[in-house]
Design brief:
It is a single chain. The chain has four helices and seven strands; from the N terminus they run αββαββααβββ. By secondary structure, it is of the alpha+beta class. The strands form two sheets. A five-stranded mixed β-sheet has the order 1-3-4-6-5, covered by helices on one side. A hairpin with a 5-residue loop joins β5 and β6. α2 packs antiparallel against α4.
């Protein structure tokens, strides 16, 4: 099962557990992709975390798009939602440890961990959002990873298979 497909399945299961059967429209554009040298567990955590954040921004209805593509230097994975959006002031802080906008739940660690993992893999993450206009996050991961191996699962992964 593809890593991205596993992350989608985990996020969908999380949404069903939290909200029953939310009315989410999923738009997926995930072609066959080349193999990427990366820590499988970490990269899956990045995808699941971003998908759950998108689901939380939607509540019980909305749209989530996942787009993946390959270029000469690496892979780009985009996740966008039709949720409430993020103000510029909050965008400046979303990758800070312990920063959260959630009133009752959330440790404020999710996006800081995402940022660290992407950075450890020599990648970059960008956010495009405005209040009331949803959020789009793009992750670029190079084919040659700078990530340190923290466990046995470091190695080549197929994101699409």
């Amino acid at each position: 099962v593809a890593l991205l497909e596993e992350a989608l399945a985990d996020a969908r299961a999380w949404a069903r557990q939290k909200d029953g059967e939310p009315n989410i429209v999923w738009r997926l554009d995930i072609p066959a992709l080349p193999t990427l040298q990366a820590n499988r567990t970490d990269i899956k955590e990045v995808f699941v975390n971003l998908l759950i954040n998108a689901l939380e921004a939607l509540g019980t209805s909305g749209e989530i798009g996942v787009v993946a593509s390959a270029g000469k230097e690496g892979l780009t994975i985009g996740i966008r939602d039709s949720g409430c959006g993020i103000s510029p002031e909050v965008q400046e802080r979303i990758f800070e440890p312990f920063f959260t906008t959630k009133e009752r739940a959330g440790s404020g660690l999710g996006l800081s961990i995402v940022y660290r993992i992407v950075d450890d893999h020599g990648g970059e993450i960008t956010v495009d959002s405005a209040p009331g206009e949803g959020c789009a996050i793009a992750i670029k991961l190079p084919f040659i990873s700078a990530a340190p191996s923290r466990n046995e699962e470091h190695g080549e992964i197929d994101i699409d298979r």
